[in-house]
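Hey L., structure's done. Input below.
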Amino acid sequence: MFRVRFFKARVMKLHSGLNILFSSLCLIFLFFPVQLATAQQYDQYSLSTFSPFIYNPAYSGVEEALMLQTGWRSQWMGYTDQDGKTVNPVSYFVAASAPIYPISSGLGVVFSRQELAYHERTDFRLDYAYSIALNEESRLSLGISGKISQLSLNIGMLNPADPADPLIKETGTKKSMVPEIGTGVFYRSAKTEAGLSVMNLLGSEFETGNILLQDQMTFTIYAQHRFRLLDERFRKIDLAPSLLMKTSLKSTQLDLNLLAYMNDRFWGGAGYRLQDGVILMAGAGFGNFDAGIAYDVTTSNTKEVTGKGSLEIQLRYGFPVYPPVPQSSGFNTRHL
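Output:
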């Protein structure tokens, strides 16, 4: 698996209030009383440890490499309409990010598309993150993102129970462009990474006739910790429990995962998405190239309709980008 080592950096002193704020946010998210549900507020991907940037713009530049990544997911496979056309959610993305060492920053670009029945959405997102070195092995990043989305809805394909329903006043495909913004904070050390983010802050609306589609402001918590289970000369095994929680403060989705890494090259494990299903994951790394695959075994009532689960594949390539080495000068005794 591609992993870039941490480079020594100038340690910056942080006010103690930053630590208090970070801890307080964690407690608020973890203990805020919300109703558990399977509602989907933001893009859904099971390989969250493989691509934290999807939910948090502060991840840009964290890998200290030029990262190129793509992914595809077909969720709840088997859904069809009355004509037999596939209408299950399908999404994919192409992304790139890199550090900018002279200004302690990172930039990221994400192009994504989601298709759900007769509704389609295409997003272009630009992320910026400012990185603060806490010590030689850990850093904190603060990020913001701006996004432009094109939404379309094919009203003509809808099949209302009453064709004369006055709520559906228009026909054909309607399109609209809407903006969105997000922000987040991400922490990473040699063994631990965690992030908090808020996406869809504007709650943009797409309205056609009396049909209204609205983005839900989504809060996300992500955390993973790796610890060494076996440490031998030619065999090293790490275990990494992780969680991903997304909430709109009205509904919440929670993923709990456990992955095992062998020699930082092969990995696999399983997870559970509350009230949805079991997640099976595996992957491998070859040099700077990584590949991951996940299959969700649906355990909710959805399986009675589709009889199938969800399939996801992600690929990424990382090209290390090293920070500039400061030049040093000295005296040559020959010139004295």
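The chain has two helices and 17 strands. Confidence is low (pLDDT under 50) at residues 1-40.

-- N.
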